[in-house]
Structures are given as structure tokens and as C-alpha cells.
Amino acid sequence: MLRLRPRRAAVVAVLALVTAGCSTSGADPDASGPGTSASGSNSSSTDASGAGAPGAARGGATISPGTAGTTSVAPSPAARTGIGARPSAGAGTCTVFPADNVWHADVTRLPVHVRSAAMVGAIGADATVHADFGSGTWEGAPIGIPVTVVPAGQRRVPVTFGYADESDSGPYPIPPDAKVEGGPSGTGDRHVIVWDRGACRAYELFDAHRSGAGWRAGSGAVFDLRSNRMRRAGWTSADAAGLSVLAGLVRYDEVAAGRIDHAIRVTVPRTRTGWTWPASHSASSATDPALPQLGQRLRLKRSVDLSGLPRQARIVAEAMRRHGLIVADHGSAWYISGAPDPRWDNDALHALDRLRGGDFEVVDAAGLMVAPTSAATR
Q: Maximum Cα–Cα distance for the chain, whole Å?
């Protein structure tokens, strides 16, 4: 059976009472492969089952936890850097997944999905795009999902999980002052994303809180950024879809360089059961075929005129046309995710509000897939 699990701040208090359940991936025959994810800051949402709780309800196969990230404790390191800082010498070769990874795929020539119009309508054809990141603060916290870059040798600490059966076990190299989405007192998804550029790994937590000498979280995942290996079918991550959060974030350094070379993480109000490759996890019991699945790929239509957008917004929009959006979690419609940075021009990013759901189409990405268990593309 499929057991729904609450995912957002409104139900964090009952997390400890949720027991691991037996469930199925529920992938429907139309899915192009094995997909859900969390909304960014400032976003409101509804439960996938219509229960009204913020964010997504979660389900997945009960499988023994992975063993990634179990290296012994190392000495404390020197100072850390933020996401906008230049990597240290020797660490610059760490890209976020290989060039042939599905996140980097060019989707401009992919066919339109046969149910594209229905799915866009279900997400919200008249709803506007919103950049859920920027400079400054919102309600006292940085706007977006922050990334903490740690140096080689960052001390590893224990992490306990509410969803241990679908999380990669620790310890994780997460410093005590790691940046938390929403700030230290945030009540939202509280993502913690740690990027170890030396080891080329991402350590990602959902609903993260300090606990003794370490951390406790709802779920967590470790991603080898040099590998196309996907998470186990039925497993979540720090994102409901079982995907990397880091991979889908818009980062200022990319826009400053003039090009984003990957798809962008997006939230939608509801999804249907099952998932679409490259996702690995479902967080809904809904069966309406008009609803998208987690992992669904969308593309900004070629006919949309981008010439009037300011530079920062235009570069983001060009990425949505070339690499598209990947449905990663439940949240407000068309909220795209990025990392906060004081150099963002919020007025420029707000220009993305000119784009509406009807400017997008769902594409069929099945032709890119080499194997259901790999994120590599043809």
C-alpha cells in the first residue's frame, strides 16, 4: 500500500510519530521512467492528497538505508566559504554532475508530451513564474536555498533521520554554523546543502536542526557529483523527488558568467502518484492523468519573446528554454529555486513574473534515457 507522509513545517511536530511503512513506487504505465520536491522559501502549498497540510505527503519503498558518507571523523578545517566564493585551488574541477547527466541535457528538440496542455493547466496556465531567491532578506531570512561550501577535511558529525529507511546514513561533514533555508529559526523546509568541492560530493538535508554535536533531519542524501548513479527506486532525498537540490539551483556565479548549463528546480501544487525519470520517489496518491509527476520536464516555448527581460532574468529564462524545469516538489506553482546572494538584482528577477504557465510545455524526455537506474543521457 502507499503510505503518505507529511513533509512540511506544519507537520514537523508529528514527524517522530510516523513509523516506516510499506509502500510501492506506484509508477504509472505512462511514466517515462522512475518522481517530488520541496517548495522554496516564501511559498505556500497544499497537500498532494488534498488534506491541506503545507507541501507534499511522502511515500516510498521501505529499504535498508544506504551507507554513503560513513568516512571516519577528520580534524576541524579552516574557514568555510559561501556559494558565491571562488573554489580553492585544486577544487575547481568539481562540476555538479557529469556533462552527459540529465540535468545538463539540451531539451530544445524533445517532443512535446501528449498530455502537455492538461498538465500545464493542472499546474496553472495563468499563474506566473516566481524566482524564489534573491538578495537581502524576507521575513528576516536570506531569500532562497543557501549552499555551504566546505573545505577538504571538514569534520564529520552524526545525523539522525526521521526517514532513515530512505536516507543515506552519516556522519556528514556539516559544520555547526551551516546555512539553513529560512534561517536558524525558519519554519519551512529548512534545507541544509553542503558542497564538498574537494571530494566532489553534495550532502543534503531536509528539515535540518542542530542536535547535540551533530544534526537531526527528516531525510538526507549524499550525491557523488562525478557520477550519474541515481538513488534507489522508491527512495526520497532532501527533495521529495529523490533528486539533488544543489543540481537544480540557480546560482549567481552562473548568471554572472552568462549561462546556466542545467535544468532548474521547480515546485507545483499537486502531482500524481508515481514518478518520471530521473526522479526516484512519489509523494502523492492522486491518480488524475492531468497532473504531472515528480521528475516531469518542462520547457519554455520557443515562441516566447525574451528580448525585453533584464540580463539576469533573461539568462534564467534562456536556461528554462534550453535545459527546462524539473518538477522536484510540491509548493507554489512555477516557483523556481536558487541560492541567495547579495549581488542578485531583485527587480530584475521579478521581471520573470512576466512569464506565465501557458508559456511552458511538458516534454517527453524518455528518449534521453540510457537506463532507468542512470541519469546519463544519450
A: 54
